[in-house]
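During the reporting period the student researcher (J.K.) took over the structure-prediction task from the postdoctoral fellow and processed the backlog of single-chain submissions. One of the processed entries is reproduced below for the supervisory committee.
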Amino acid sequence: MADPENHTLQLLREFRREFKEFHKEFSDFRVHTDERFEELARLFAGESVLGRYAAADVDKRIQALEKRMTKLERARS
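J.K. obtained the following structure tokens:
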């Protein structure tokens, strides 16, 4: 039968090897996840800015229509 001390060392080495593999996989996953979150944050920020720009354009058009209506109402009076 194998020496218990050697067996323990062998298990610890195997554990260390597996932990290193897990750590590398986890690090890769975290980098990928961080990049994806940053990409989503940029996407949402871009959509928000685009939405504000579009809303501002609609507001300008409505204001222009209101001014024209006011002029027409004054002309009819």
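The committee noted the following: The CA atoms of residues 45 and 51 lie 10 Å apart.
J.K. will present the remaining backlog at the next meeting.
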